[in-house]
Amino acid sequence: MTSDMIDAVNSLAAIGKGDGSFAIESTQVRAPLGNEVRVRMAAAGICHTDHQSLSWEGPLVLGHEGAGWVESIGPEVSGLAIGQPVLLNWAIPCGHCAQCLQTHGHLCDRTQGLSTESPSVDSPHTHWRNQSVRRSFNLGTFSEYTLVRAEALTPLPTHQNMAHACILGCAVMTGVGSVINSAKVQPGDSVVALGCGGVGLSVIQGARIAGASTIIALDKRSESLARASAMGATHTWQIAEEDATLEAAVTHVRSLTQGRGADYAFEATGRHSLAFAPLKFIRHGGTALQLSGAHGEVSASMFDFWWDKRYLTPLYGGCHPSRDFPKLLNWIDQGQLDVASMVTRQYTLSQLPDAINDMLAGVNIKGVIVFHEINK
After folding, report:
1. Which domains does the chain show, CATH number per domain?
2. Region for 213 from its dihedrals, namely left if φ exceeds 0, alpha if ψ lies in -120 to 50, beta otherwise
3. Scanning 22, 171, 211, 278, which has the fewest C-beta atoms within 10 Å of its C-beta?
4. Element (H, E) at 327
5. Selection from 266, 287, 278, 270 nearest residue 197 by Cα
């Protein structure tokens, strides 16, 4: 053990190599310094972004959605105790920049690279095969242990099921938050959700919680639409393979919205080619939101923007951790937000290849990696 990795613990982790492949091997995670916390992971959600990250520059500890227990803390940490259950948040706010002070923590200047501060802990923090490695989104949750800044953590109630709570840190926050914080859907509004995976079903639940009167779920899979109905969709429409331009789906949506189109439409398919598709489903003056984080060039017809339509690409559902995660947890306790039904299968870390394949095949709403014996 080198001096810069003092008191490191061995941690089995999934390491992306940057060429589309990964290995599950032992790493070493050093002890926390300053405002850092070492977390023993309980569970980690699997997201399409994790599949994309296999091609990011490696080596990289994979995973960005998870929950665990505080294992050790640095001398500058306050408000957290060893053994405390915590939720990990990948848009890590510094708490003192202009964005954070305006409750826009997801746009923190440090996290977005607009300041000289880094959202990551000081390097080296993790070693693999005798080299220093980075962590996906500065978290790397596909690992038995992770080392993060204290601002990346939100305390969880001890009664909260960790395998369910872990998906709050990305999919649920993105979907529900985009409805509540970004779109600000109001009672009586009409909402379209294009894509009914983890994020899309979170949109539907957020719309139900907000009091939307018409919630239309669109997807190619009948099983996904059945799940959407169970979680609050008032109407569903199965998109046919031959409806590549979505014309039939648009006609159906208009038939349910007095011929005008919906007040809000959310794209949650994970397909970049559909980045501008929600514009087709909204009325004049309506709002389209693209949640898949599309990259690169995407073509669109300007006719789809007519008239006075608004197009948003919200990041992380406008998450302000201290405001939003307690709200989500309260909704779970009140029975308004169902995360248990969204976790359709649990896997061990060694089963990560199966978990990724099942996600790509649409088998699960959300698959979750479970590391330790946790409350069921």
Report:
1. 3-156+339-370 (3.90.180.10), 171-316 (3.40.50.720)
2. alpha
3. 211
4. helix 321-333
5. 270
In order of 109, 198, 241, 323, 333, the CA distances from 329 in angstroms are 27, 17, 38, 11, 6
Amino acid making up residue 261: G
Closest residue by Cα to residue 313 from 334, 287, 333: 287
pLDDT of 280 reads: 97
H helices, E strands: number in the chain: 9, 19
Closest CA to 66 of 149, 210, 164, 151: 164
The two three-digit tokens of residue 80, written as one number: 């957290």
Provide the CB-side half-sphere exposure for 343 (13 A, CA). 22
Alpha carbon distance 182, 136 (integer Å): 25
User: Which one-letter amino acid corresponds to residue 132?
Assistant: S
300 vs 327: CA distance, rounded Å? 36
> Distance between CA 95 and CA 157 in Å, rounded?
23
182-193 pLDDT, tens digit each: 999 999 999 999
Q: Is the per-residue pLDDT at 108 higher than 60? A: yes
- Rounded distance between C-alpha atoms, residue 121 and residue 109, angstroms: 16
DSSP 132-156: E-EEGGGT--SBSEEEEEGGGEEE-
- Decide: helix, strand or coil at residue 324: helix
Confidence at 2, pLDDT banded by 50, 70, 90 = low
Q: Does the N-terminal peptide bond of residue 307 adopt cis geometry, omega within 30 degrees of 0?
A: yes
Angle at 217 between CA 211 and CA 219, to 5 degrees: 160
d(CA 11, CA 40): 9
CA nearest to 362, candidates 271, 273, 281, 278: 271
Q: What is the CA radius of gyration of the chain?
A: 21
